[in-house]
């Protein structure tokens, strides 16, 4: 048994040496790798206008190793590859340790790429996580080790790595962040720069100074542990409060930073190429942005959002006929808060959830003339608890009101009664049909928007109505092209599916135009009264508020826009102007992006009929209501038959 084990071990070792010999001979035969770092990454809008350029060689000044501060060399070696000068491209003990810890934790908690491997990957390969790529990386690593000495490899590595914000190489990074040459960098500055390439979108001091300094302190500790600096030098460097160069921190703000960040995130998922590679390796990313619309969105938010340092915004515009995301703003300042509230903030929807309820009601036989009592009402919740429902400012009609009016003024009593009538489980089913994916519970209060969703999710839902009941799949990346002109991703439109019955979808859409029609005001004003006089197109929409959230979502045949505003910590919005901000932003912005477009109404399907209806009674126009009626649509055969005569 021992003899067999000895033979197997000997054979395994022999095989390893033979394999390495073959790889070595192959690498020598291939010759030194050709180094080419002339790259730019360009992001385009839907009309192929350049949104932003991630520059390659223009922002990379190659400097020789003796022109780089020794602190930089020591910081990178301590942080990335402490045995760099003692291995042949692969740190075998470190690889074994990483494999062990990753297996133990069942996750990738440690990496083991040497500086040579990283250099090979940055210069010649994509970062796709495939076995083919790993084999290619290994072969190029060996070729670098065979044909270049360690100092040449380190020099190439330091001149090719990406430091964020379009800066490549240590000289460009040194000038950008500290306004000095690479050979003038101090210990504390070198340690900070050495931390950025691990994740420029996380460790850039312009994005998160705290993250950058935490990473710097870790690198200083590594330098001390590996004998590169003394403990005294480490503590002295940790205490220094670094100042980023004015030339870097005062860079002109880019247009659409939240948009392009989300586009790059999506492109990384779609192509299986990591984010750093997309930003730095010469790709061309074609997006769905309408640059003019994006500029107008940002301008409108700057003008209309109250000046509160903590009040945040999330807004997105979708073209319902195609699903293109044409504009997006995920916060007030990307450099300060890169968290994208348009795509990632799940907030309670409030009354913007009511259109889903009333679509279900139409399916269950309601019409715009269906009346329910609007008066103080006590409901019994699912657990038997009594619930005293109320309307805004305790305003009640104290009489029956029509569905058309209840929707326009956002009557909560009507909504709760409707949900009780149709059944909360049916509301959940309809909301899911609209694409709402949150924690949907079949409870009575769901009618008032206790479900949370992101602005993008709500924009998609409303776009289904704008698209006459057909499915809408919002997307942001049209195609991705590599530096050689190869298309690595191309968007393929999905065939739309009929999600909503066309006639019901139109009846609801037309009722949603009522929030801007003062003829529906009575015991409460229509919720869009404050912005109606500035609208020149036909829009349908719904506003909504909860204590910490304020929404406005609306659409035309051309665009759907969802706007949310609130505080990240979910505290109550106190000021009236803060609550009204989404409506004002939505109205001003929608008018701006429709400027020059022909007036277009929602197309009327053949299965509905329009009649002049009295919003108060739900009856046909008659002698006593000739001046107050409104054109209202019904499924054929469900229109009112009686005229208002008294």
Automatic annotation (TrEMBL):
<keyword id="KW-1133">Transmembrane helix</keyword>
<keyword id="KW-0121">Carboxypeptidase</keyword>
<dbReference type="GO" id="GO:0006508">
    <property type="term" value="P:proteolysis"/>
</dbReference>
<dbReference type="GO" id="GO:0009252">
    <property type="term" value="P:peptidoglycan biosynthetic process"/>
</dbReference>
<keyword id="KW-0645">Protease</keyword>
<keyword id="KW-0573">Peptidoglycan synthesis</keyword>
<comment type="similarity">
    <text>In the C-terminal section; belongs to the transpeptidase family.</text>
</comment>
<dbReference type="GO" id="GO:0008658">
    <property type="term" value="F:penicillin binding"/>
</dbReference>
<dbReference type="InterPro" id="IPR011812">
    <property type="entry name" value="Pep_trsgly"/>
</dbReference>
<keyword id="KW-0997">Cell inner membrane</keyword>
<keyword id="KW-0472">Membrane</keyword>
<keyword id="KW-0961">Cell wall biogenesis/degradation</keyword>
<protein>
    <submittedName>
        <fullName>Monofunctional biosynthetic peptidoglycan transglycosylase</fullName>
    </submittedName>
</protein>
<dbReference type="InterPro" id="IPR012338">
    <property type="entry name" value="Beta-lactam/transpept-like"/>
</dbReference>
<keyword id="KW-0812">Transmembrane</keyword>
<dbReference type="InterPro" id="IPR050396">
    <property type="entry name" value="Glycosyltr_51/Transpeptidase"/>
</dbReference>
<dbReference type="GO" id="GO:0008955">
    <property type="term" value="F:peptidoglycan glycosyltransferase activity"/>
</dbReference>
<dbReference type="InterPro" id="IPR023346">
    <property type="entry name" value="Lysozyme-like_dom_sf"/>
</dbReference>
<dbReference type="Pfam" id="PF00912">
    <property type="entry name" value="Transgly"/>
</dbReference>
<dbReference type="InterPro" id="IPR036950">
    <property type="entry name" value="PBP_transglycosylase"/>
</dbReference>
<keyword id="KW-0378">Hydrolase</keyword>
<keyword id="KW-0511">Multifunctional enzyme</keyword>
<dbReference type="InterPro" id="IPR001264">
    <property type="entry name" value="Glyco_trans_51"/>
</dbReference>
<dbReference type="GO" id="GO:0016763">
    <property type="term" value="F:pentosyltransferase activity"/>
</dbReference>
<dbReference type="GO" id="GO:0009274">
    <property type="term" value="C:peptidoglycan-based cell wall"/>
</dbReference>
<dbReference type="GO" id="GO:0008360">
    <property type="term" value="P:regulation of cell shape"/>
</dbReference>
<keyword id="KW-0133">Cell shape</keyword>
<dbReference type="GO" id="GO:0005886">
    <property type="term" value="C:plasma membrane"/>
</dbReference>
<dbReference type="Pfam" id="PF00905">
    <property type="entry name" value="Transpeptidase"/>
</dbReference>
<comment type="similarity">
    <text>In the N-terminal section; belongs to the glycosyltransferase 51 family.</text>
</comment>
<feature type="domain" description="Glycosyl transferase family 51">
    <location>
        <begin position="52"/>
        <end position="223"/>
    </location>
</feature>
<feature type="domain" description="Penicillin-binding protein transpeptidase">
    <location>
        <begin position="314"/>
        <end position="564"/>
    </location>
</feature>
<keyword id="KW-0808">Transferase</keyword>
<keyword id="KW-0328">Glycosyltransferase</keyword>
<dbReference type="GO" id="GO:0030288">
    <property type="term" value="C:outer membrane-bounded periplasmic space"/>
</dbReference>
<dbReference type="GO" id="GO:0009002">
    <property type="term" value="F:serine-type D-Ala-D-Ala carboxypeptidase activity"/>
</dbReference>
<dbReference type="InterPro" id="IPR001460">
    <property type="entry name" value="PCN-bd_Tpept"/>
</dbReference>
<dbReference type="GO" id="GO:0071555">
    <property type="term" value="P:cell wall organization"/>
</dbReference>
<keyword id="KW-1003">Cell membrane</keyword>
């Amino acid at each position: 048994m021992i003899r067999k084990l000895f033979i197997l071990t000997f054979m395994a070792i022999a095989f390893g040496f033979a394999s390495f010999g073959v790889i070595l001979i192959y690498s020598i035969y291939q010759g030194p790798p050709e180094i080419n770092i002339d790259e730019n990454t360009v992001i385009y809008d839907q009309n192929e206008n350049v949104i932003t350029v991630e520059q390659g060689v223009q922002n990379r000044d190659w400097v020789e190793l003796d022109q780089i501060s020794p602190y930089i060399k020591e910081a990178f070696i301590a942080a990335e590859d402490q045995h760099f000068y003692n291995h042949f491209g692969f740190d075998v003990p470190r690889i074994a340790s990483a494999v062990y810890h990753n297996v133990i934790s069942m996750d990738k908690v440690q990496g083991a790429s040497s500086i040579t491997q990283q250099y090979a990957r940055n210069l010649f390969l994509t970062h796709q996580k495939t076995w083919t790529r790993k084999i290619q990386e290994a072969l190029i690593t060996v070729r670098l080790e065979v044909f270049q000495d360690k100092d040449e490899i380190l020099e190439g590595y330091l001149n090719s790595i990406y430091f964020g914000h379009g800066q490549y190489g240590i000289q460009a990074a040194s000038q950008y962040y500290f306004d000095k040459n690479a050979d003038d960098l101090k210990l504390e500055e070198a340690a900070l720069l050495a931390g950025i390439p691990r994740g420029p979108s996380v460790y850039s001091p312009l994005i998160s100074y705290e993250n950058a300094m935490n990473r710097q302190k870790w690198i200083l500790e590594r330098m001390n542990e590996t004998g590169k600096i003394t403990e005294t030098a480490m503590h002295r460097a940790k205490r220094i409060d670094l100042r980023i160069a004015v030339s870097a921190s005062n860079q002109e703000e880019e247009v659409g930073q939240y948009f392009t960040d989300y586009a790059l995130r999506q492109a990384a998922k779609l192509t299986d190429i990591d984010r750093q590679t997309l930003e730095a390796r010469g790709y061309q990313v074609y997006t769905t942005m309408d640059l003019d619309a994006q500029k107008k969105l940002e301008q409108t938010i700057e003008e209309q959002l109250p000046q509160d340092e903590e009040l945040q915004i999330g807004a997105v515009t979708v073209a319902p006929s195609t699903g293109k995301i044409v504009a997006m703003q995920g916060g007030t300042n990307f450099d300060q808060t890169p968290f994208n509230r348009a795509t990632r903030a799940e907030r309670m929807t409030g009354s913007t959830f009511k259109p889903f309820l009333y679509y279900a009601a139409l399916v269950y036989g309601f019409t715009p003339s269906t009346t329910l009592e609007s008066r103080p009402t006590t409901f019994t919740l699912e657990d038997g608890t009594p619930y005293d429902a109320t309307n805004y400012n305790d305003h009640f009609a104290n009489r029956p009101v029509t569905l058309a009016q209840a929707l326009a003024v956002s009557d909560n009593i009507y909504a709760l009664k409707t949900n009780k009538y149709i059944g909360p489980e049916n509301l959940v089913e309809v909301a899911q049909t609209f694409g709402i994916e949150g924690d949907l519970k079949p409870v009575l209060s769901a009618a008032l928007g206790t479900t949370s969703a992101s602005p993008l999710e709500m924009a998609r839902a409303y776009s289904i109505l704008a698209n006459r009941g057909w499915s809408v799949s919002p997307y942001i990346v049209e195609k991705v092209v590599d530096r050689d002109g190869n298309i690595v991703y191309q968007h393929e439109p999905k065939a739309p599916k009929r999600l909503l019955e066309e006639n019901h979808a139109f009846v609801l859409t037309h009722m949603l135009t009522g929030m801007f029609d003062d003829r529906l005001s009575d015991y409460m004003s229509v919720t869009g009264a404050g912005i109606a006089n500035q609208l020149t197109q036909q829009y349908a929409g719904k506003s909504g508020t909860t204590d910490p959230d304020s929404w406005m979502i609306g659409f035309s045949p051309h665009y759907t826009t969802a706007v949310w505003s609130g505080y990240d910590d979910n505290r109550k919005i106190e000021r009236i102007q803060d609550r009204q901000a989404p409506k004002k932003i939505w109205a001003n912005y929608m008018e701006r992006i429709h400027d020059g477009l022909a007036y277009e109404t929602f197309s009327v399907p053949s299965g509905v009929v329009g009649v002049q209806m009295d919003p108060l009674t739900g009856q046909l126009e008659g002698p006593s209501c000739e001046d107050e009626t409104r054109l209202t649509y019904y499924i054929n055969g469900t229109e009112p038959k009686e005229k208002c005569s008294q």
